[in-house]
Sequence to fold (248 residues):
Amino acid sequence: MNAAVEFGDFQTPHALCRQVCYVLSQSGLSPASIVEPTCGKGSFLRTSTRVFPDCRSILGFEINPVYAEEVAAIDGISVRQADFFATDWPDVFSMLPEPVLVIGSPPWVTNSSIGSLNGSNLPVRSNLLNMPGMAAITGRSNFDISEWMMLHLLETLSGRHAVLAMLCKTTVARKVLKRAWTSGLPIGTASMRSIDALYHFGAAVPASLLVCEMGNGAPGRKCIMYPGIASDEPSATFVLMNGGWSAT
Fold:
């Protein structure tokens, strides 16, 4: 169980993966490349091969060698057994055709929970000084690992035709958007769709599918909120104003 906590080893159910991929497909997204940075047993990757049959490259990364070998046996998927924090993500994305979809469910754990287990699945502080807001994140006494991961990915995707779609705690999604916008990362459009984390993961915490489409020019600073993963109509729109969230 300790290993599961350290590496966020809680697999995304196939039904939820299908819902996420379907929503992205219905939005008009047709990726040329799909990347799952922490693919586990490959639920998102398996679903992607069916929902996006024209995708030219589907690539997964997984720190667990047993899982990586299992996913590598799936036709149409390439897998690298690798540590997220040791991966050269700019190099990875530079070789992929666009548009790129980065999808998944990064670990829902904090640095303190990993540290209490003497775990090592953490970002190295010395590598964060040149990244927008990263030093501020790791300077906190406790922070969500997924927040660091998603901000790092968004920064790496800056300037590319790409979409980031991640399942995470709603509080983390809000923090990621606020820090990305205030750091000037070019997110053209953003949305959050509520999911039932207790049903899907056994976690009694508000959670969402965060979708960020990278654009050109100034950040949009607006997020469309949906009450459910498959909702057609938004429930609200939130805008970052004066350092805080305001509903419109």
Notes: The longest helix spans residues 14-26. Residues 157 and 203 are 30 Å apart (CA to CA). The radius of gyration is 17 Å.
